Amino acid sequence: MTTTTPAVTGAPPRWHRLDRRTLLVHCGWLAAPLGSFALTALATGGRIGAGAWITLAAIAASFAVLTAIGSVRWARTDYRVTHDSFEVRSGVLTRRLKSVPLHRIRTVDLTASPLHRLLGVTVLRAGTAGSADGGGELSLEALTAADAERLRTVLLARAGVRATDEDPVVSRINWRWLRYAPLTFWVIGGVFAAAGGVYRVLDGAGIEPWKLSIVRGAFDEFGARALWVTIPLALLAVVALGTIGALVLYVEDWWKFRLEWTDARTLRVHHGLLTTRSVTIERARLRGVVLREPLLLRAGGGATVRAVAGGLGNKEENRKRSVILPPAPRAEAVRTASGTLRAGFPDAGLRGHPRAALRRRRTRGLLLVTLPGTLTLAVLGALLTPVLLHCAWVFALVSVPVVLWLARDAYRNLGHGLDGRYLIARSGTFSRDTVVLQREAVAAWTFSSTPFSRRAGLVTLTAAVAAGEDGYHLRDIPAADAPALAAAAAPGILEEFLTHGPAESRTGRHRS
């Protein structure tokens, strides 16, 4: 049985093992091969061939080996919290001791899959100030929920933490937000992703989906009717399935969502129905927020919010852990961003960009979308069938206004500015992102341009921050204004280059 985590005292702390149910968690991998075996038996009417029995024997042998390895690993993994560090000791033949000072721990993430929740355990991951690539992260595979919560409290304890008089709850779930769930890419893309997953499972089980009677019947029915009827019906079915899937995923991901300040210096977001996740972010590592408005969600008046913070792991983990508000009304997103920053969200009064940025977007859209598509259809029409020639001019006629509208929208979304201690940058059309960064968090600047943007007198300014993404962009700003803007936003970085004159300042740290 896992012992409780002791308070940090002057006495030498003792080592603690993981919960014994860790061994059962490691058996979760059996679900996929056993499910495949059962699916094969169902599809063949119980006629199991020699190959399937060999596969089952291999599964049994693997289970015995991995269970033995898991038992040894459990017996040889333990942890403790000293007065100044968090230590994890592991390894069978080669023993490893990983120790992280408590003052470097920035986030503690508790994650419990359905199997973990069934067994009453959870996974604890402690992220440090230098764990952007995952190398500085400490992970304990299975602790009881109570022990994990106590350990998190100890790891995040800081001297001098004071309570705050402000409302600690920044945001909580409102099920009226469900109307925003279908306004995402997954309404369409999720259906095809799920279909691809089912295909891979069936193919792995030795079943050819195209030979199943239900699939053959569907294709025969589809081909027997007029395309002007079947295609809209198929699209309607995809949208309906995608909408249902989006609603289910929204409920699963954001059940009991709650974003709150647990004290004056720790922000915590908790959510999940089957798989629960609880992420904590130290205020000292919070560098800003991103108000994200994908095109469909923006059309419906919604937005999401992400935190720009250090210690959230690699890019993939950062993408999961940084979301602090699900798709919700834009007013709620702005309020949540303000509560996270503990300041007003600077969403208005941004400086626009030159008209040359609009011309660039129009030209780029026509050259990269309209022209290639039209030429491809025209060439295929000349080689194969005149029908494609008509498709070529129809595509050009339809794509030109769409491209011009998107270019106009992208241009209108451009903006930047300085507001007190924050730098604001807004851009994008398929996903309009408003990034609010602490100016002191900017570690370096990159000036990027192409031959075409230089001819237009524009440059993209990238702020490097040791948190969130690799960098945050101020796209297509006047080249003459970029050095002064960078120097004003983050003083002390460009001054030595600016002292050598405007020409050198624009080329000394320039990257094409």
Automatic annotation (TrEMBL):
<keyword id="KW-1133">Transmembrane helix</keyword>
<feature type="transmembrane region" description="Helical">
    <location>
        <begin position="222"/>
        <end position="251"/>
    </location>
</feature>
<keyword id="KW-0812">Transmembrane</keyword>
<feature type="domain" description="YdbS-like PH">
    <location>
        <begin position="74"/>
        <end position="153"/>
    </location>
</feature>
<feature type="domain" description="YdbS-like PH">
    <location>
        <begin position="254"/>
        <end position="335"/>
    </location>
</feature>
<dbReference type="Pfam" id="PF03703">
    <property type="entry name" value="bPH_2"/>
</dbReference>
<feature type="transmembrane region" description="Helical">
    <location>
        <begin position="23"/>
        <end position="44"/>
    </location>
</feature>
<feature type="domain" description="YdbS-like PH">
    <location>
        <begin position="411"/>
        <end position="486"/>
    </location>
</feature>
<keyword id="KW-0472">Membrane</keyword>
<feature type="transmembrane region" description="Helical">
    <location>
        <begin position="387"/>
        <end position="407"/>
    </location>
</feature>
<dbReference type="InterPro" id="IPR005182">
    <property type="entry name" value="YdbS-like_PH"/>
</dbReference>
<protein>
    <recommendedName>
        <fullName>YdbS-like PH domain-containing protein</fullName>
    </recommendedName>
</protein>
<feature type="transmembrane region" description="Helical">
    <location>
        <begin position="50"/>
        <end position="70"/>
    </location>
</feature>
<feature type="transmembrane region" description="Helical">
    <location>
        <begin position="180"/>
        <end position="202"/>
    </location>
</feature>
<feature type="transmembrane region" description="Helical">
    <location>
        <begin position="365"/>
        <end position="381"/>
    </location>
</feature>
<dbReference type="InterPro" id="IPR014529">
    <property type="entry name" value="UCP026631"/>
</dbReference>
